[in-house]
Amino acid sequence: MDCRLSVDCLDEIFEYLENDKATLYSCILVNRLWHESSVRILWRNIWIVPIAYPNRYRWESSSKIIRTLIDCLPYESKILLSEKGIYSTSKLPLVNYASFCKVLSVHEVDQIIQRNLCPTKRELVLQEILKMFMKQTSYLKELDYKITTSDIPVGFTSFPGAINRLSGLSRLTCSSNIKSEFFHQISGICHNIKSLSVEINTIISNGLKDLISQSNLKHLTFITNFSSSSLSYIIPSLTKLSNTLIKLEIIGISFYDFDNLQHVYFSQLQTLTFEREFLYLNTFLEKNGKNLKSLSIGYSDSPLSIAKFCPNLKSLVIAMMNAESLKAILNSCQQIESIEIWCSDYLSEKECVGILRKFLPKNFRKLKLEKCVLYHNHFLRSKTIN
After folding, report:
1. Strand (E) positions, 19-114?
2. Mean pLDDT of the chain
3. What angle do CA 166, 126, 141 make, to 5 degrees?
């Protein structure tokens, strides 16, 4: 068999194993050909370690990652770490593993350093590793830069080579409390960010609204665990995305700053998620419901607005309050293929199943029921029924 054909076949096979890090690592050890084909896929996003994996494997994996990254550091960085008593110099590995990375998780690198090295010197190690990424990777597709208030942000966006490595960034995950300088630098460097996920903390940086205003942004996610979080400062920026935004997700504690957003028409919006209540859902759906293909809403005072304004839904996740609302939705939304219902004392699982059997659309494929408890207008999931 032609050697080139073998490589092509292996590449296609290994692509299916991208999230199976243990198997990919085993493939690297088979022979040189398998190593060359699998190593670039394994290191493309080395930070993915499934939660289901045992803690021992996760610990061993993180230890190997940090040792390999330090081995890939240039000679000058190794000397610096050696002088600080952090690292003993060694030869460069035969393969520059860091160069294959297309996803950089500053958060995960920092966590690995803290777990495996001296925490008091973590900033220096993190700095040298990020310098290496800014010099040696061809380009980055995704960047995860989540931090806590106790973290010290590293200004890696100004490192040599950062502009070339970050200019093609398409996905960014970050925290709202990062210093404004970071957001301003990213806004100036990255003009093709399609997906932005923001963890909202008690502090919201002034530079965040400039980043949200990027004209190419298509997917936007806000995640918070702080009931006092206020988004009023950045809500006006969302109106600038009215012609580009395809997916909007609000996950976590309720937000109460969307009164200025309820009348905005998002011409391309197809996916909407409000994990908690949205006080202006009816008005928002009246403007935007017709184009929605996927809707996930944890609580709604008037689920009938879904039946009235969202006839083209294909996927629905909802906490149902009563049988009549469920019947109305199923009768109106005839294109639904998947539905997840959070049952409560107001609508038992038995009653729900009976309605679904009678009113399910013909293209329906997937059903999931969860038993939930209504607590202060928030549905708390307790168990999956089927």
Report:
1. 103-105
2. 78
3. 25
